[in-house]
Amino acid sequence: MSPRISLILCTHNPRWDFLSSVIAALKNQTLSLAQWELIVVDNASEQPLLSRLDLSWHPTARIIREDRLGLTQARLCGFNAASASVMVFVDDDNVLEQEYLSHVLQIFQAHPDLGAIAGKSLPQFEVEPESWIRDYYSVLALRDFGETPLTTAGKFGALTAESYPYFAPCGAGMALRKPLFATYTAQVATNPARLALGRTGQQLTSGEDNDIILTLLTAGWG
């Protein structure tokens, strides 16, 4: 059986306890292993993951080294290795609920006009923060938009800075249709400015998730 989902986990010098929690959550997915492949992109980690990370529990898991530093470069590497029609990006501190991958397939099957989807992104703090930090959850990719699905499908108008959907998926757990990401890949591969948008080592430049969503909206997806 060909996989239906390519799960792409990009990491650079991961904190091992965080990464272990991410892997443990992947082991517990309710979607059968035959229906999804696991691609770990080791993005120029100082200690290569190939000899350190045990993925023997997954029959189609593999670790790929990408020495061009940067999240966008790592994602492009994952795209090139992916064989499924749906891609799911998982960060190395991004713990998925057990039914996450099953829900991804269910939603895409029910809504063919959607190009990208994601779920809630809830915090798990090591130290309880001050209450004022809640005002900045959105810039920390901490998102809880309630129980009602929010979508642009069928009603998105002219694309402006003001009309960018506030609930657009962020990279943590973002699921996309591969043809959509192929369009994005073709546009950014030779564009240095867009390639530079992703996290690169200790540099916290961002905007790559917005770039993906803008590509999606411009192409008419929800």
**Residue-averaged pLDDT:** 91
Oligomer: single chain
State which percent range the strand residues make up.
Answer: 5-15%
Structural class: alpha/beta
Rg computed from alpha carbons, rounded to a whole number of angstroms: 17 Å
**Helix count, DSSP H or I runs of 4 or more residues:** 6
Question: What does this 3D model show about the protein?
Answer:
The protein is an alpha/beta fold and 222 residues long. Helix content is 27%, strand content 14%. The protein contains 6 helices and 6 strands. It has helices at residues 16-27, 71-81, 100-110, 178-188, 192-195, 208-218, and strands at 5-11, 36-43, 62-66, 86-90, 116-117, 175-177. The protein has a 6-stranded mixed β-sheet with strand order 3-2-1-4-6-5, with helices on both faces. α4 crosses α6. The mean pLDDT is 91.
Topology:
Elements: E1 5-11, H1 16-27, E2 36-43, E3 62-66, H2 71-81, E4 86-90, H3 100-110, E5 116-117, E6 175-177, H4 178-188, H5 192-195, H6 208-218
Parallel strand pairs: 1-2, 1-4, 2-3
Antiparallel strand pairs: 4-6, 5-6
Question: Could you give a short description of this structure?
Answer:
The chain is of the alpha/beta class and 222 residues long.
Tags for this model:
six-stranded mixed β-sheet
